[in-house]
Write a structure and sequence with these properties.
Elements (H helix, E strand, L loop, with lengths): L1 H34 L10 E9 L8 E5 L1 E5 L5 E5 L6 E10 L2 E8 L5 E11 L17 H4 L3 E8 L12 E6 L3 E6 L9 E9 L2 E6 L2 E7 L10 E10 L4 E15 L5
Antiparallel strand pairs: 1-15, 2-5, 3-4, 4-15, 5-14, 6-11, 6-15, 7-8, 7-14, 8-9, 9-10, 11-12, 12-13
Length: about 260
Amino acid sequence: MVTYYHLNRKINNILIFLLFCVSAMILSFFGCAKQEVKPRMALPGYRSELLFQENFDEDLDQWSFEGKGEVAITEDGRLLVAVDTESEGVAVWTSRDFSGDFHLEYEVEIPETPGINLAILCARGTHGEDILSELPPRTGKLSEYTRGQIRNYHISYHCYTPDGQHVPGSRVRKNPGYLLLSSAKHDPCRENRPYFIDVVKIDNRIQFFVDGNLIHDVRDKGGFGPTYMNGKIGFWIHGSGTIFTTIFDKIRVFKLIPKDEDS
């Protein structure tokens, strides 16, 4: 009986040990899988580390909004921004700042035609203030972001005038001042369909891709003041004549680390 008891106890200990090992392996596997989130578009010479991810499957705690319009999560888990006909625009901001070299990717769909979309980078006050907690509230009017108390870069696409006329091209501007850094002759997002957007900010260089195609590649050489290196990421949306709807999804931001730093 004593031998049988000790044998059972030994078997139980082995089973407990094996269960512990299997659990550790499962946890390790899912932990590694979580860390292995990669951007859709790889950048030669850099590895990517996930900093921010939003799939719009729960709430909007990671965002702030300015202007008159509707902001909601759709039934299929995307961000709907509907700009009111009387609105001067709606701005959507990440609640946190990003600094250093980063890669922003997102999906955007523009079901309605007349309007304008801007992607905004490195947004802070002209004296370094946090734009959400240290500056007066804004109404969503474009001039508040291009000629007001905020410094940033913005990239325009899917652009229409208030009377519904298409404005060809896409532009990169530096604010305040609405200063032109780069111009493309065609609008890469004119059609009413989903687009995959990639914005890469490495030091003073900005690259803008649509569906993997390079639209802008420009360097801010400091001719219009210092290069902006940190701040919030945002989107500005405005309609022309009717309610203008834009849908965002799969927004992610990655830190870019040169591969030679790993050697």
